[in-house]
Amino acid sequence: MYYSRLKLASVLGVCLLGLLLCLPNGLRNPFPSMPWRQIHLGLDLRGGSYLLMQVDLKSLTHDRLQTLADTTRETLLKSQLGYRNITTNADAGTVSFNPRDASEADADVTALEKLPRVVPNEFTVKKQDNGSIVLTLSQDAVKARAREAVTQSIEIVRRRIDATGAVDPEITRQGDDRIVVELPGVSDPERIKTLLGTTAKMTFRLVDSNPMHTTAPPPGVSLLPMSDPAEGGPLPVYDHVDVDGTDLTNAGAAIDSQSGEWAVSFTFDSIGTHAFSTVTQANVGKRFAIVLDNKVIEAPVIRSPITGGNGQITGGFDAQRATDLALMLRAGALPAPLSVVEQRTIGPSLGADSIRAGMLSLAAGFVMVILFMALFYGRFGWYANVALLANLVLMVAILSLFEATLTLPGMAGMLLTLGMAVDANILINERIREEVARGRTPLAAMQAGFERATSTIVDSNATALLAHVMLFVFGTGPVRGFALTITIGIATTLFTTLLLSRLLMVRWYALTRPTSLPV
Amino acid sequence: MFGRPLLRFVRKDTHINFMRGRFAGLITSAVLSLASIGLFFYPGLTLGLDFRGGIVVEAKTSGPADFGKLRTALAAHNITHASIQAFGAPNDVLIRLDTGDGQETNKVVDSVRHAVDEAQPGTTVLRADAVGASVSSELFRNGMLALGLSLAMILAYIWFRFEWEFALSAVITLVLDLTKTMGFLVITGFEFDLVMVAAILTILGYSTNDKVVVYDRVRENLRKYRTMPLRELIDLSINETLNRTLGTSSTVFLAALPLALFGGTTLSGFAWTMLFGIVVGTSSSIFIAAPLLLFMGEGRLKNSRTEYKQ
């Protein structure tokens, strides 16, 4: 029953600190030197777009298999072993081929076992019963690639979004193969979706000039469609990449001085310049295809070696498309296509309505609970109300400290916490009332009330806590906000009811020494 | 108002014989729960966007909504199976449709936006949500996992703090509460989505809290009155905690009521379900959890009381 000065000071100190931490939410940063933390409004209150994007695992697997097939060819050639029919299968995650002669099969396996692996046990090499040799990618390797792709993509996604001028975009990883993009204030995410949905992988590859191959390409050559179907049918293009778009240093949209069309001009770095001049020197007179995301933008004939490291693409672009392509080339290619699997957009007016509805409910609920406590519990009810106010302040303070995101369900969580919080006071008061009825003195009744009620309070809050921690772990988006506010609310409730309202009651008793309690 | 309390629910010498109504309570509850389970299978829950997947676009048209025009414009974008509903004001429309995989869903939502704008230029899109099938099934699985694990953890906690009779009767009561809430959702047609899972979990938390308080008193009285028959003892415990039970359910009810009235479309379903759950959770503590404890603990809890003497 006795509160030391230290305890008194620390309880009041925590409340004051809470009040201080709440301030940033109402004021506009008056002390720029102070760490200024405040609650962020969720997209459902602020308006904006939420995009959940998934890395295309199949395309990642396909890319890796392609390079694996390339290195397989090189290794076998180097070891002077022959092969027939190298094929890749993205669904199964395999590269398979037939040895030139069955007697070479073991030597093939030995040679390929020595191939470098990006991650341990990335793939296995096995001789099949039908004589073919199969390299199989492991599931773990595909997952590891996805994780790596997500890490790379986040950086590129950020650069692309920043270039559009979106304010405060939030880009985070979710699980192994997903990225969450939150765009406050963007009420129509169509352009951003297009920007992020394009891999923008640009490669320069030679065109196979054999006219027979336009219908049945041999291994190592693929038929790629033109990006503008009006330019003609698919072209047979070698799979081997001569120059990669990642070797660009700059790209920009400009109007071509000769044709007056929109074009994208680019500059290679030293690696790109070197590769470009080597290829163009060796292949004068052949067609060189500029391939963007497996579609041929154009395939001009190399008239003379290009050594300057500059180039220009004209592919019948309009201004928007040229600007976006230049933007994407500058930001870099995504390692794999990203597809939007979930999208939520909230207009600014609905957000404002939600804030108003949330605030109104919060205020109305708060007032009703306060009135109830005053009517049913008198003086001790008012102490509970002081604790309730402190509870609200502390909740806001902790949310600000974490820079948590406040959502509409989160506001509901706050309100319900306030409704539940007085439960502890009700338990204490009812207990004191019973003890008084049993004929105890005021002091003994209060003491018994606090002691007996405490374990009940802890038990009942613990079960509520368990339920909401589960919700936080398995929930997403606004619902997580709800679980978070309730979880924080349970902690602040324990503090304000077990320490603060009790302190007020004890101080009142110590000051007035009443002969009977107002219960 | 600033001194002694002005109001209270029941007088301190109240002694209502709740256990006399134990069969009536259990039978009513069982019938309601069975009916709810029936409703759960037919016509079944209305799944919300989170769990069903598809597209919902909420728009405020420039003039009064012209459904014919909207339908024509949507058809021009090859969207023929959309449902167009009015809600709230005459210029509020809700367009929803089911789609297949994520990539398609993501494109169709843009078409819907274009169509709405072509039909009635100047329309503002209040909300446009698209959830792919893979994501919705994942959200559903996680929601159910959260529900299941919460129940299991509540069971474990009460078991740990009380005897197993308490834990088991609490969890049976919670399951009965849960089925009734499902029945309520089917009848009202509120959408079952993640927010609703949050409401149900809150109800479970609240309901458990209510049971813990009554059980806590039962346990205390078991130690205090060693010779009192369990039936009387449970009745006494309920009566002693009645003011608290009614008090707390009132404050939670009062807190949730404004949400139901002013919370807007997002929260009103959530809040009405909460209100329903508070009433069910409070009454089930008295009429179901307590009788179950009586049936399960008759004999056993008396024996275990001898342990306290040592």
Fold and architecture overview:
Chain A: The chain crosses the membrane at residues 357-377, 382-402, 481-504. Chain A: It holds the Pfam family SecD_1st. Chain A: This is Protein translocase subunit SecD. Chain A: It is found in: Cell membrane. Chain A: Residues 150-208 form the Protein translocase subunit SecDF P1 domain. The complex is a heterodimer of chains A (519) and B (310). Chain A is of the alpha+beta class and 519 residues long. Chain A is 51% helix and 20% strand. Chain A has helices at 5-22, 43-46, 57-78, 105-113, 139-164, 190-197, 270-282, 319-331, 348-401, 408-437, 442-474, 477-512, and strands at 40-41, 48-55, 83-89, 94-99, 123-127, 133-137, 170-174, 178-184, 202-206, 221-224, 235-238, 243-244, 248-255, 262-268, 288-292, 295-298, 310-317, 338-346, 405-406. In chain A, the strands form six sheets. A four-stranded antiparallel β-sheet of chain A has the order 7-8-2-18. In chain A, strands 3-4-6-5 form a four-stranded antiparallel β-sheet. A four-stranded antiparallel β-sheet of chain A has the order 12-9-15-16. Chain A is elongated and about 110 Å long. Chain B has 310 residues and is an alpha+beta fold. Chain B has two domains: 18-45 and 136-303, Up-down Bundle (Multidrug efflux transporter AcrB transmembrane fold); 54-131, Alpha-Beta Plaits, CATH 3.30.70. Chain B is 70% helix and 9% strand. The interface between A and B is large, with 81 and 83 residues.
